[in-house]
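Hey, weird one. I pasted the Trypsin-like peptidase domain-containing protein sequence into the form twice and got a warning about non-standard characters only the second time. First submission, copied straight from the form history:
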Amino acid sequence: MLFSSNNQDSTATKHYTTSFPTYDISKHIEDARSSILRILSTSFYDTYTFDEAYLTLDDIKTNTPKELADAHYSSEESTAGTGIVLENAFSNSLIITCQHVVSSPDTVISYFEGSDIPEETFVKSISIKHKQNNLLFTKNRIYSFNIIAANENHDIALLSVDIREDEKLPHPPIQFGLGDSDDLKMGSFLYVLGFPSGYPMITRGITSTRPKKNKHFFLTDALFNPGISGGLVLASKNNFHDFKWVGMARSATASEENILVPRTFNKDYSKLAKPYADQAFVQKKVRISYGITQAIPINTIKDFIENHQQQITENGFRYSIRD
């Protein structure tokens, strides 16, 4: 149960407050912090490259890429994020996070480009995923998890964490009630909790756009760093007497640019002063616009959970937004 000082005005309003807290709310924040976890998903790829523009995707499907490729190397891609504990059952736990944190393409294809080359015709490289490791971190242990439901358009996923029968996940389910994102307004004060760059962090922000029914996110000026996706977003209607769960941090606005990078794991390229003479590869570099963060409204999250109630029940959980 959450308490507040008797001399504080706890009068509730329809909209979430725009004021700054005027008294100690650390107990609320500690409760929120205990219900979030760090997530890491790593995908392992075999990549095959082709030096000349003469092979189509059908050619590669007919033969194995290894037989046709001019070069082959292995690589891995990791995505970090934050998960929110919804329920601890007998031998597993139910977690919610962003879909993009735990999902990666099975195949990535790049094509040769040029004024005299047909668009998306001749394959330059193909990367094929052969394994994916999904890990969840607590203070003392690392657990694996399975994805039991996901929606790419809404960017939401439900996870089931396997726990030994003699153990219990040392993180309680979220202790805050489900809010109503329709009651957010421009200027509503928010707290965002997550694991940017793997560190447990708390930041604050102000709602800059109200959630719209045709859009599955709203904007806030909270600082965003990779790893906070899936982070818990809280707001209050009664001068921070208590909080409601109003959303989940999703992503920041960003721009992309193509840069040349050396061959992956090239041991000879160890000195910056030494000219690089091996094959170069094009890699996309993302530049994040800090201070422009997208958050998934809690009403979208509630709809997602309700639409996937069957998967929740089939995996041994009782969680429901109607409880």
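That's the output from the first submission. The warning seems to come from a hidden character in my clipboard, not from the data itself. Helices lie at 26-33, 57-62, 65-68, 99-102, 298-307, 309-314.
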